[in-house]
Amino acid sequence: MEIEYIHLAYYASVALGLVVAMVLANFGLAVIRAANPDLEQLSAYECGFNPFSVAREPFNVQFYVVGLMFIIFDIELMLLFPWVLVAGELAFVTHGYVYVFFLLLGVGFAYEILKNVLAWEEGRNAASVEGAERAFARVLASIRARGFVR
């Protein structure tokens, strides 16, 4: 009986040894890299550009709303495809559950349309576009200053 568990003990010891080796290697490499910092590590961001403005500027919430709606209806489609593949093999009650699920999602979507959740306000949208244009102009000026684009 003890022979059966020897393989499990061997596997656990090898796994534990690998974990310990990786953690020690991580700490060792961190100490080496901290002693010799690279110029890229000291830069503000990976792209090499310094921040253009304060990161606490107001952001249009509509982007989040559209993103959440995309996730909801993307999950709906993700549930629809497997159901379509096995729909012929399922009981009638299962079809009823799926139809109720899609009916609830449709009612929610109709409610969002009636409440104008997807309607962008002119003032906020125009401000967002102007802010994006200003940010793009600053990025382009910074790229030109570095000599990448003429």
Q: Mind explaining what this structure looks like?
A:
- It is built from 5 helices and no strands.
- The chain starts with a helix and ends with a helix.
- It is mainly alpha-helical and 150 residues long.
- It has helices spanning 2-35, 39-42, 62-86, 92-114, 122-146.
- The longest helix is centred in the first third of the chain and has 34 residues, at 2-35.
- The mean pLDDT is 78.
Oligomer: single chain
Helix content: over 70%
Strand content: under 5%
Round the Cα radius of gyration to an integer and report it. Answer: 28 Å
Overall tally of domains: 2
Shape assignment: flat
Record field, number of beta strands: 0
Average of pLDDT: 78
- Report the total helices: 5
Please provide the ordered H/E string of secondary-structure elements.
HHHHH
Largest sheet: none
**Poorly predicted parts:** none
Give the end-to-end Cα distance, rounded to a whole number of Å: 77 Å
Going by helix content, strand content and strand pairing, the class is mainly alpha
Keywords for this entry:
150 residues; 5 helices; single chain; flat; mainly alpha; 2 domains
What is the topological layout?
Layout: H1 2-35, H2 39-42, H3 62-86, H4 92-114, H5 122-146
In brief:
The protein has 5 helices and no strands. It has helices spanning 2-35, 39-42, 62-86, 92-114, 122-146.
